[in-house]
């Protein structure tokens, strides 16, 4: 469904329909079988029940001379059968249904219960792991499975609490990989990623993630109101509306929501936010990252879909936050990271230079080229 525009434009609906049709056919056949099986016994049971009574009648007739004596007994059997058959049929139909639905229930149950992580995550309320001094990388390398070259090679650097750093570099340099490591989504292959003196590993990843706010390039919006999207995953009755509006203001989207949307913060955004433009979605994504007031903010090319004017406004908002929060930004446009305290210039997984904007412009010709 995510690729529907491309598929329609290319006229390739058929291929996709074909892909779904075998599964759909199996499902229909099974559904038909289940329905048929659940009613068939009724006829068999009726045949047996009433056939039995006829046989009984014949047997009684053969045995006794006075058939009239047997009639009450026959009547009793016929009446009992008449009453019992529907109940037997009901029991059978229900058993069929239980067996038919059982397979699906088993699958869902297994997903929810045997995969321990899901249950564990829900049970444990973790405290955020706060940064006191710095986040540091020591001799950190990362290899993707099956990749020939390391995506990151022997990185050594520190991010001081409250500072802002920009990650720049050509495509494939390893920026997203580095951010995924920071987010605790990947684990270093070699070396260490530390917050103060604590090494981030599987034991404290959840705690670390609690102090992070992340704005990806592609914001995922659910089909709900703007408020629910900003306070993603929080039950409607627990949403702190003033916090939602404060974050929307910081993300430069408050005025747009109030002035241009018919129902303000209660406007439904449509499936995956179809009723909003790319830039509007992006700013809602930024407001979302700010909602739980994280200590560290990570932007992965979060402003690259914005026009220059909007980008400027968003960057200004980010600048207001700087020195209050630790900010890590990946950017394609150097204008985005111009105000960062430190810029890290990556190429093929290695840091080839770092410093502030002015320093890099002066000493690094490659960086100067990027700036043009
Ligand atoms: N899942 C993966 N499996 C194997 N290799 C990967 C995977 N993801 C990325 N890579 C490789 O790792 C290297 C770094 O990729 P990364 O996505 O970090 O680059 P990037 O700097 O974010 O690039 P861009 O500016 O295009 O987003 C690339 O050579 C890429 O081919
Ligand atoms: Mg990337």
The biggest beta sheet reads: 6 strands, mixed
The name of the CATH topology of the largest domain is Rossmann fold
Q: Roughly what fraction of the amino acids lie in strands?
A: 15-25%
Helix content: 40-55%
State the CATH class of the largest domain: Alpha Beta
SSE run = HHHHEEEHEEHEHHHHEHEHEEHH
- Count of beta strands: 10
Question: Helix tally?
Answer: 14
Low-confidence region ranges: none
CATH superfamily of the largest domain: P-loop containing nucleotide triphosphate hydrolases
Report how far the terminal alpha carbons are from each other: 39 Å
**Which strand order does the major sheet show?**
6-7-8-3-9-10
Average pLDDT number: 85
How many separate domains?
Answer: 2
InterPro entries: AAA+_ATPase, ABC1_TM_sf, ABC_transporter-like_ATP-bd, ABC_transporter-like_CS, P-loop_NTPase, Type_1_exporter
Protein name: Heterocyst differentiation ATP-binding protein HepA
Domain ABC transporter: 135-372
Pfam families: ABC_tran (PF00005)
């Amino acid at each position: 469904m995510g690729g529907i525009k491309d598929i329609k434009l290319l006229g390739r609906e058929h291929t996709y329909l074909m892909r779904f049709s075998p599964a759909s056919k199996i499902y229909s056949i099974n559904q038909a079988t289940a329905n048929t099986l659940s009613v068939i016994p009724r006829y068999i049971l009726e045949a047996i029940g009433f056939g039995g009574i006829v046989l009984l009648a014949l047997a009684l007739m053969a045995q006794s001379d006075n058939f009239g004596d047997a009639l009450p007994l026959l009547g009793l059997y016929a009446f009992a059968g008449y009453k019992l058959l529907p109940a037997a049929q009901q029991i059978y139909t229900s058993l069929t249904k239980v067996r038919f639905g059982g397979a699906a229930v088993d699958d869902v149950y297994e997903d929810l219960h045997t995969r321990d992580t899901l249950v564990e995550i829900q049970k444990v309320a973790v405290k955020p792991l706060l940064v006191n001094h710095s986040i540091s990388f020591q001799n950190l390398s990362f290899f993707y499975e099956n990749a020939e070259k390391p995506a990151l090679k022997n990185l050594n650097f520190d991010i001081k609490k409250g500072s802002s750093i920009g990650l720049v570099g050509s495509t494939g340099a390893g920026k997203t990989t580095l951010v995924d490591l920071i987010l605790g989504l990947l684990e270093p292959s070699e070396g260490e990623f530390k917050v103060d003196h604590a090494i981030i590993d599987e034991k404290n990843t959840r705690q670390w993630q609690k102090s992070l706010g992340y704005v990806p390039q592609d914001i995922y919006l659910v089909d709900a109101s703007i408020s629910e999207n900003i306070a993603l995953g929080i039950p409607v009755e627990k949403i702190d509306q003033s916090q939602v509006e404060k974050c929307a203001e910081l993300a430069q989207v408050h005025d747009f929501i109030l002035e241009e949307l018919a129902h303000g913060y209660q406007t439904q955004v449509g499936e995956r936010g179809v009723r909003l433009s790319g830039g509007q979605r992006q700013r809602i994504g930024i407001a979302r990252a700010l909602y739980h007031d994280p200590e560290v903010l990570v932007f992965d090319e979060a402003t690259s879909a914005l026009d220059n004017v909007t980008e400027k406004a968003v960057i200004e908002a980010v600048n207001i936050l700087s020195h209050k929060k630790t900010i890590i930004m990946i950017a394609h446009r150097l204008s985005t990271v111009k105000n960062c305290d430190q810029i890290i210039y990556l190429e093929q997984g290695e840091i080839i230079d770092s410093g502030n904007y002015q320093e890099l412009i002066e000493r690094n010709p490659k960086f100067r080229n990027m700036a043009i």
